[in-house]
Amino acid sequence: SPMRNLNSNIPVFLFAIFIIYISFTLLFLAFVYEARDKENTTTDSHIVSQKSLKIKPNQDVIVSVKTSSVYYSTRLKYILETWYRLASDKIYFVSDKPDPDIPIDLGNHFLYTDCSSSHQRAPLACKLTAELELFYRAKSNWSCHFDDDNYVNMPNLLNFLSDKSPNRPHYFGKVSVAKNIKVNYRNESISFSFGTGGAGFCLSQFVVEKLSELAMRNVTVLTLSNELGLTDDVTLGFIICEISFSIDHNF
């Protein structure tokens, strides 16, 4: 009968309503967390380490490793046991909070920030902005970023950079997409490429100085990421390739 058919469809209807409710709830929570992350980040210095940040100036290479407190006992541990030992004087870690269980005392080579530990866009952009702050202060010939799930052959990296000029606009990395990214910026459609953060990238002193000048005008990875909705590595590529200057693409 029609009434029986209606009764049999009620559980399906209620289940569909439940799925829609859950979906909208998750979307709402994602929006709230993203908005909170934006509010909790500023364009001031994001490095809040208790130990004074003393960096030997004019080094040949400085390496920043972006990590998170949730990976101290896993990813960070294995870096400290392996490739960190190959160039411990050049490697710094940028994270979201200190941890007394780190197996060795990294001194001021371990920097924590006011950035969130979540893997959302804004906290990651916040951490990369803090890494760039480190580069600005170091004034090294070369500044390189890696993630905490990378293994870096430091002798090979140093050898690769040794015959390159830090006074030229070099941006070494790996493209992870087949086509250029297109974004609309100030009523203009812009196409550009970028070096994916997951594979690591290196910037010449020339590039870092240009980024530092932009940061003084409040043009940072964090501010542009919030404005354009792009991830941290894509935003950095956009700033380097399209805003700061015409640059050699070395991908």
From TrEMBL:
Keywords: Glycosyltransferase, Membrane, Signal-anchor, Transferase, Transmembrane, Transmembrane helix. The chain crosses the membrane at residues 12-33. It is found in: Endomembrane system; Membrane. It is a single-pass membrane protein; Single-pass type II membrane protein. It comes from the Eukaryota. The keyword Ligase does not apply. GO terms for molecular function: glycosyltransferase activity. Residues 59-242 form the Fringe-like glycosyltransferase domain. GO terms for cellular component: endomembrane system; membrane. Belongs to the glycosyltransferase 31 family. This is Fringe-like glycosyltransferase domain-containing protein. It comes from Pristionchus entomophagus.
